[in-house]
Amino acid sequence: MSREHDDASCEDVLSEVWLFLDNECDPQRRAAVQRHLDGCGSCLERYGIEEHLKALLHRKCGGEHAPEQLRERLRESIRRAVLENTDLPVNAEKTATD
Q1: pTM
Q2: pLDDT tens profile 13-32
Q3: Residue 45: its pLDDT value, please?
Q4: How many beta carbons lie within 10 A of that of residue 29, not counting itself?
Q5: DSSP structural state of residue 97
Q6: d(CA 11, CA 36)
Q7: Sign (positive/negative) of CA torsion 81, 87, 88, 93?
Q8: Dihedral angle of Cα 62, 66, 67, 70, to the nearest 10 degrees
Q9: Distance (Å, whole) CA 5 – CA 77
Q10: Burial classification of residue 48, based on how many CB atoms lie within 10 Å of its CB (0-12 exposed, 13-18 middle, 19 or more buried)
């Protein structure tokens, strides 16, 4: 690994690899991780393994959706929590889609 332009350690990069894969790093941090990966073969190899794992998970689990009944219960639960936190009366007859 070349350290001349490296402002991220192997430990830092490997702990942030999923953030990097999900594009959840800020642009400056993303650039630092990319520079590190460009210069560190062992981290690049590990990144490749994680990238393949993410793709596999997406292929095998990406198309599943929660059952509509569960989604409705969650919507109602969230609605109640929001109303309770705003000190408004909760009307059991109302639904989240009203």
Answers
A1: 0.55
A2: 999 999 999 999 999 999 99
A3: 95
A4: 16
A5: T
A6: 11
A7: positive
A8: 180
A9: 50
A10: exposed
Amino acid at position 51, single letter: E
DSSP letter for each residue of 35-96: HHHHH-HHHHHHHHHHHHHHHHHHHHHTT----HHHHHHHHHHHHHHHHHHTTPPP-TT--T
Q: Whose structure tokens read 């569960």?
A: 70
Answer whether 60's CB lies under 8 Å from 43's CB: no
Contact 8, 32 (CB under 8 A): yes
Both ends of the chain: CA-CA distance in Å?
58
Query: What is the C-alpha to C-alpha distance for residues 57 and 51, in angstroms, rounded to an integer?
Result: 10
Spans in the chain with pLDDT lower than 70 = 1-6, 87-98
Residues 34 and 6: beta-carbon distance below 8 Å: no
